[in-house]
């Protein structure tokens, strides 16, 4: 089955059902800059290698860069690969992209020892700020990698249909607890024999009311549902100021 | 200080001191009001490459230093003077009779607007030798220095001796460079993959010049055949650069240091 | 200058490989040595660690001990610069110092840490921060020296496990075999630090030429797994 229209579940702020593991994650990091103004919203993007995290980052930036001040921090397995992609494609000016080296362990850098990432975010604020939005991409490793609340205010977990339609069923902290689950590359579903209906059902079983969206970034405006979600988060973030 | 066990105290060796003072001669050249040596350390004025520079060559009248010897060389370049010091041949550190460590202390001072080119031939640690060398340099802020140190572990085909060499350079009273290399038997890990690996010769060339304040050079990897040697030119935290070179022999190291000097040298002033 | 047993557990917190101060992304030169074929098995890893311990490790341990003993951290920072000719290694030390500062201030808030953070917003050399952190945690110079010396070898050992798929038991056994040397280096460092309270030149300056040369080459690699 092919879903023509990517679906989101904006009712995410509804009361959590018993299966839902936690409410939208407020970051434990201070929410103000040293000068007392509210800092940028930080959104993490995790998920397996090749699922489309960098493509998602690029698409979000292209959609929002005119109206928002955005910066990106990449956490690569191999240094700078993602950062180089974003640079080559002129998604953002070079001074708005920072690559953190992770010693072959991106999940350590985004979850267990976030010091290098925090420094990268603060340096970007200092050099090109004030920023509205910082996207932190994790070099993909596995399904268990999640972002620390000390680093990001919300996280998106990106999987793709090519990885097999079993991934949502398998679950793992990324799939089941991310603030937004993106199932990407729906354009490939017929080719790889992935059943999107099954994926949606399994995801719901894992995630309760937490939103899931299906995307095909190859299609024009395929990023729209993710951008809508980001806008919503931003609105909440500014409203809370 | 290093992680090397202390050697027996120096006992009956030779003690010798040499002293050089260079001052402007008032006619655009450099005079040597003090040029004193003794024992194995004999500084002689020799032909200089430039008219404004005094050239001194230290002639080793005896094989030195031997275990137990204590040599000291002081040189001061007074404001505006230019001194170049070299040596006639490589210095060979040899074992003494009672296994005592030899000491060789060099004290250099370069005043405002003065220049010192300290370019001795290599120091070779012969098998069984044990030498602790210290070089301390006090630079005025407007002083210029080119200083080379080359260390070779063992004469050709010979086991290495032990060599601990500390180079401390202050500029305007503040630490600019402080490096100690400890090599040879008894030094943990010296021939391992963090320190010298298979190389048996190393060299450092320091160029300090106020010119670098405005012309900070970048790092230069001095391309070379890794089987023969490798080297890098690095800018220090102050207005100075250091070339660090490793090679299988003294010739390779010299070649790399020369390449580094060409890559970094400020215009001759 | 000895540990009081009342604070010993703080040393475990500070020296824990999971202390969130950025160390996990640094190989201490091991990645470059492995790429050059110089480190390939437990024996060569041990030789590498021994050389690093006696040079960079000793210097770091003495800086940390001196900072913990109350030497002026800004002068120690300058002394660390003079002992680090490689700009890549100076940058690494400051980056790690800044990360250590963040973790230390969260764990053991202290005016000394605040003052150094204000004076060196881009980061002071990591061992200096480590020493102040140790003092803030109620630890002494010997503890600080042990933590710094241990870090000098534990980083490369962990990196070798990741890069060479080395048997982790072998790699940890290397660290265990080095333990007596670690103790000795820490003691040497403390003795030097005590003298350094009067004369900073008493701090050791032991250098490892290959580490310096390889660090610059490594920093220029377009693709690498570790930051240093
Ligand atoms: N067919 C298809 N390919 C996609 C889509 N999104 C990303 N890709 C491709 O998938 C590959 C991996 O994407 P990338 O963003 O680098 O993955 P990351 O490792 O998660 O950052 C790239 O070749 C992308 O062009 C999609 O929606 N459909
Ligand atoms: Mg990517």
UniProtKB/TrEMBL annotation, chain A:
Residues 1-45 are annotated as: Disordered. Residues 43-212 form the CobW/HypB/UreG nucleotide-binding domain. Keywords: Chaperone, Cytoplasm, GTP-binding, Nickel insertion, Nucleotide-binding. GTP binds at residues 47-54. Residues 23-34 have a biased composition (Low complexity). Its main location: cytoplasm. Coiled coil: none annotated. It comes from the Bacteria. It is found in: Cytoplasm. The keyword Cytoplasm applies. Belongs to the SIMIBI class G3E GTPase family. UreG subfamily. Facilitates the functional incorporation of the urease nickel metallocenter. This process requires GTP hydrolysis, probably effectuated by UreG. HAMAP family: UreG. Homodimer. UreD, UreF and UreG form a complex that acts as a GTP-hydrolysis-dependent molecular chaperone, activating the urease apoprotein by helping to assemble the nickel containing metallocenter of UreC. The UreE protein probably delivers the nickel. This is Urease accessory protein UreG. The lineage of its organism: Bacteria, Bacillati, Actinomycetota, Actinomycetes, Kitasatosporales.
TrEMBL record, chain B:
It comes from the Bacteria. It holds the Pfam family UreD. It is found in: Cytoplasm. InterPro entries: UreD. Keywords: Chaperone, Cytoplasm, Nickel insertion. Transmembrane segments: none annotated. The keyword Disulfide bond does not apply. Required for maturation of urease via the functional incorporation of the urease nickel metallocenter. UreD, UreF and UreG form a complex that acts as a GTP-hydrolysis-dependent molecular chaperone, activating the urease apoprotein by helping to assemble the nickel containing metallocenter of UreC. The UreE protein probably delivers the nickel. Belongs to the UreD family. This is Urease accessory protein UreD.
UniProtKB/TrEMBL annotation, chain C:
Its main location: cytoplasm. Gene3D superfamilies: Urease accessory protein UreF. Keywords: Chaperone, Cytoplasm, Nickel insertion. It is found in: Cytoplasm. It comes from the Bacteria. InterPro entries: UreF, UreF_sf. Required for maturation of urease via the functional incorporation of the urease nickel metallocenter. UreD, UreF and UreG form a complex that acts as a GTP-hydrolysis-dependent molecular chaperone, activating the urease apoprotein by helping to assemble the nickel containing metallocenter of UreC. The UreE protein probably delivers the nickel. PANTHER family: UREASE ACCESSORY PROTEIN F. Belongs to the UreF family. This is Urease accessory protein UreF. The gene is ureF.
């Amino acid at each position: 089955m092919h879903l023509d229209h990517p679906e989101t579940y904006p009712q995410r702020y509804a009361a959590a059902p018993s299966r839902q593991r936690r409410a939208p994650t407020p970051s434990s990091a201070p929410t103000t800059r040293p000068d007392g103004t509210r800092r940028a919203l930080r959104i993490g993007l995790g998920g397996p290698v090749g699922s489309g995290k960098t493509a998602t980052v690029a698409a979000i930036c292209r959609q929002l860069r005119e109206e928002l001040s955005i910066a990106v921090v990449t956490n690569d397995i191999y240094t700078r690969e993602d950062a180089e992609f974003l640079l080559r494609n002129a998604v953002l000016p070079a001074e708005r992209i920072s690559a953190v080296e992770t010693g072959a362990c991106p999940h350590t850098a985004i979850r267990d020892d976030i010091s290098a990432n925090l420094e990268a975010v603060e340096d970007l604020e200092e050099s090109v700020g004030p920023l509205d939005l910082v996207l932190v991409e994790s070099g993909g490793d596995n399904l268990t990698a999640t972002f620390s609340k000390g680093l990001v205010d919300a996280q998106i977990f990106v999987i793709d249909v090519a990885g097999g339609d079993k991934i949502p069923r398998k679950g793992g902290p990324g799939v089941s607890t991310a603030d937004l689950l993106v199932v990407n590359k729906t354009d490939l579903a017929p080719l790889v024999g992935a059943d999107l209906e099954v994926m949606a059902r399994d995801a719901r079983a894992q995630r309760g009311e937490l939103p899931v969206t299906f995307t095909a970034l190859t299609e024009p405006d395929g990023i729209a549902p993710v951008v809508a979600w980001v806008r919503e988060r931003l609105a909440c973030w500014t409203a809370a100021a | 200080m290093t992680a090397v066990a202390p050697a027996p105290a120096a006992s009956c060796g030779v003690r010798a001191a040499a002293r050089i003072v260079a001052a402007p001669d008032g006619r655009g050249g450099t005079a040597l009001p003090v040029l004193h040596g003794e024992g194995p350390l004999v500084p002689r004025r020799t032909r200089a490459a430039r008219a404004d520079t005094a050239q001194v060559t230290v002639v080793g009248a005896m094989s030195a230093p031997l275990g137990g010897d204590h040599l000291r060389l002081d040189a001061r370049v007074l404001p505006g003077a230019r001194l170049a010091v070299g040596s006639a041949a490589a210095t060979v550190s040899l074992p003494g009779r009672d296994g005592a460590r030899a000491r060789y202390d060099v004290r250099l001072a370069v005043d405002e607007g003065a220049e010192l080119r300290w370019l001795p031939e290599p120091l070779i640690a012969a098998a069984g030798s044990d030498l602790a060398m210290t070089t301390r340099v006090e630079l005025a802020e407007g002083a210029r220095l080119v200083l080379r140190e080359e260390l070779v572990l063992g004469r050709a085909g010979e086991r290495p001796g032990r060599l601990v060499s500390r180079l401390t350079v202050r500029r305007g009273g503040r630490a600019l460079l402080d490096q100690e290399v400890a090599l040879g038997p008894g030094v943990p890990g010296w021939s391992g993959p963090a320190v010298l690996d298979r190389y048996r010769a190393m060299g450092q060339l320091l160029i300090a010049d106020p010119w670098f304040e405005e012309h900070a050079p970048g790092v230069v990897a001095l391309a070379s055949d890794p089987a023969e040697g490798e080297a890098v030119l690095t800018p220090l935290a102050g207005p100075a650069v250091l070339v660090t070179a490793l090679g299988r022999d003294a010739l390779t190291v010299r070649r790399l240091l020369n390449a580094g000097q060409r890559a970094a040298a400020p215009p001759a002033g | 200058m000895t540990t009081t047993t009342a604070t010993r557990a703080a040393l475990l917190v500070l020296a824990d490989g999971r202390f969130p101060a950025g160390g996990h992304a640094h190989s201490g030169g091991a990645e470059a040595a492995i790429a050059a074929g110089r480190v390939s098995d437990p024996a060569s890893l041990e030789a590498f660690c021994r050389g690093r311990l006696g040079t960079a490790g000793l210097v770091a341990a003495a800086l940390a001990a001196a900072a913990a003993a109350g030497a002026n951290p800004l002068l120690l920072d300058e002394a660390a610069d003079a002992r680090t000719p490689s700009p890549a290694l100076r940058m690494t030390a400051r980056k790690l110092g800044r990360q250590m500062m963040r973790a230390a201030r969260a764990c053991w808030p202290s005016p000394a840490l605040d003052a150094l953070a204000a004076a060196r917003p881009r980061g002071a050399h990591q061992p200096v921060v480590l020493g102040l952190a140790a003092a803030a945690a109620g630890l002494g110079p010997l503890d600080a020296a042990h933590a710094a010396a241990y870090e000098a070898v534990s980083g490369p050992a962990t990196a070798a496990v990741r890069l060479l798929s080395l048997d982790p038991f072998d790699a940890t056994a290397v660290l265990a075999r080095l333990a007596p040397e670690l103790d000795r280096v820490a003691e040497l460092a403390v003795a030097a630090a005590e003298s350094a309270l009067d004369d900073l030149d008493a701090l050791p300056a032991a250098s490892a030429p290959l580490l310096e040369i390889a660090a610059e080459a490594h920093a220029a690699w377009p693709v690498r797994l570790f930051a240093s």
